[in-house]
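Q: What structure does this chain adopt?
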Amino acid sequence: MGITERREREREKVRRKILDAARELFENEGYDKVTMRRIAEAIEYSPTTIYLHFEDKDDLVRALCNEDFARLLEALSLIPPAADPIESIRQLGRAYVGFAVSNPNHFRFMFMSPQHHKDEAHTPEDPGWRSFGALLDAVKRGVAAGRFKAVDPLTAAQVLWMNVHGVACALITMPPAQWPHGPAANDLVDQVIENGIRGLLVGPGKA
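A:
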């Protein structure tokens, strides 16, 4: 192993240590209470070392969120491709909620920490962009095939996403005892997905 490669590995090791410590502190103490100095103390480095890797706290948070969205994209990418666009929408919705339930802390950090959304310019390469793009493509296919009404695909995809996003947030934040008149139905996710699809269908009835 050459000197350059060894240095790069050491740099990545320190960066990983910073990210892991920051995530734990954010989860335990909250974003507002955690400073770069606090993160440095947790890993026994100087604050200067942190700034060699990240411009500021928001830059660090963006790196963490990018990792989490990459995990979401990986989970969605594991879905076998379906020729039927409506079935693709069902599968994507179930996988999205499944990711949230399996990774509640990551999901909260991705969507329930407003500070990392400041003035961000997303690109088609971003994993979050690509994750939503899978749903948008399925909606476009549904419209092109005449299965859906002549709607704006982007708006329709946003509506479908908000449906499953809402139930995902509720499932990871509300204990069963807090659900109105009883715990969530076993098929709640499927019902939410079907209701969203039904509103887009050209004809009445189940897709």
